[in-house]
């Protein structure tokens, strides 16, 4: 059986039955009716013939063999670390963790929320600040977010500029420069040797330690900044903070950085979880997600995402950032690393790294090199008197990569796995001999004296048995794709096949440093080049960048390309982006981040773009129109017939067309946005191309463009000159040139194994599955929008508003009741309040679709009991859902419905039943009394209350 046969859910007989149900004889007939002729492809996609699973892995192994595995001591933001096998196998390679969705339905996400709360608490404890988010994309973008946040949060210095440390990572300086220039924010880059620059300073960014390893006394600078009413961000090495005074103790307002060295592979640059922590009082300005603690209906502590009104899909262009996907899976792994090692284990690792770095320093000095800094953590810098190239080559010959800073200076970053054999080979290459030393200890004035990570969770799970069971206990609380369909509209929760996932753990991919010499990464280049070629062929564009490490980053990159294109043509005034009112909120937030203004375009009654209103807006904004952002098929789940006309109207007005690729899963092999009018699109590899969501990340959002925009794709931040300028490309948007490269083999495998016909079949079956659900539920839950023939694309919107008006039962009540059936809820209240958007994807079989349909029909009958007055709403099974095992097995039961109706509303649940660990959570109450640290164990003991 081919891979595509395994990937698709319905069998041939199921397909025929479903087609007959929706009124068609063949799949071609259905698709021809759904997809407009005006955008249909005439030829097959130009892709190689599909490979079997074993053939694809063999081909990928050939690429892997072209990479050279070395001892990586380059540093510069990426460090050698050890992923404990218990974490690799039970988190990173466990579908219970990597197939889960962002925890917007917290009752079925308690395991991953607890794991993310652990991550937050590690960050809070080590940074010495009161609030931390649940991860950001990478360190460089985290610094950029902090710079913008300080601008927004500083009420005492309204305008002014910020100053950033020249000894931040080179990539960080480039990313921050690009972000600030897009927003028109003034800044200076300085080493602070002469103190703070003069002028109206609203913020300062300091590196701690510096990128070359030096530990400096930054407290005087922080104090000076505060005296001038400036806020201070410290970019800190989290592992170093186990030994060094925390940013909070030093007086910082914000701390940012990366957690890659908490057990995450190098992965050629990502994905890795960045962090941000702030003082209490700044939490409403904090970008990204924040896990907090509230209570459920029984008064039991329960985790949920807090302050969700900050999310970009609600605040749109007024959002704190455009972050949608973060790095949840990697944050979970990093937090688990901290749980497994505990504070004493982390401190022991840090001490060993520093001691080994000191031994390298002593050996280098003995060999005649000049030590640049006396105080360092794990990174040693030497002045070599012009011998940098010679020493880098000597280390290379010994199987070790070190960093050349310039012709005279090198640096060496000692990693977790580097033992005496590696260190001895290194210092021999430097001309010295490895020995012991008591020199170069960190000065006492820099050392941390307070305790950290004192919660029992960081002191309990030391044996592998205990850790394995803890991780299993957490995953058992969740619903992921390994248990159930996740029918989330706009999110495409399809199969993440095991054969696709396996290669990301191969050392030949996982251990390559993103700044390694090009001849050591030939396999990575071959894979990236081939994947890029395939994605260009699929989308109909001319070029692509894989750098964006989330869908929203892809939006931002695409809009920056449009802005740069207009500027290059002398059209600086083109700053208005037209965005349909139904668009995903990241569209508007990304536009604002790119320094563009947003003008809304009305939605017609059928859910399509109101073309008349579009014409009015084009006339109103004239030559200030930069372009339009559209989602296709539309956010309403329909192929809009007039999409070609919309694109032409905007082009005629001198604008560019951005086609959001969130719904590309309905187009593969059927249509190409680069051919029907798009100038630029981002793609979601974590949706359409099988990279898993991982509880809210990793994501990859490549940006594809027509030829005239190619020169404006993001560049390599590490190659910027002292002024942050790049010779051949614009500034980067992410820290690593290829973003989250480590997960690209997943998409390569998916395309290699499906081929042109397989991708087309994926789209066709996604359309079939959605129309089957729409047909079967339409009579009870009207489908809000359809095309001219009463059909939908790959998702449908179920309208509950009339049912709510009759009964008081809300769409949220239905979401919570679905948990009792063992289902993750559809997308709630987007794009229309009071509705549910359902996307089954092509990977779900008929049995699972029918199980969902049965659940929704049963819920409809329960709603009718309420509307008929048979059952009071507040006492109904719907309003009291979901039902925990604690509630169902309690000694007393005084509800008007039976325990059986609550737990087993359909008979199939008696064969396999999921019980949520908490009841319905009080989100609003949690926001009023924000708690975002791990609660004490006694808080869970209801008997003690």
From TrEMBL:
Signal peptide boundaries: none
A Pfam family matched in the record: GcvP2_C
NCBIfam families linked to this entry: gcvP (TIGR00461), PRK04366.1 (NF003346)
GO cellular component: cytosol; glycine cleavage complex
Name of the protein in its database record: Glycine dehydrogenase (decarboxylating)
Alphabetized UniProt keyword annotations: Oxidoreductase, Pyridoxal phosphate
Ranges for domain Glycine cleavage system P-protein N-terminal: 5-429, 459-726
Family stated for the protein in its record: Belongs to the GcvP family.
Required co-factors: pyridoxal 5'-phosphate
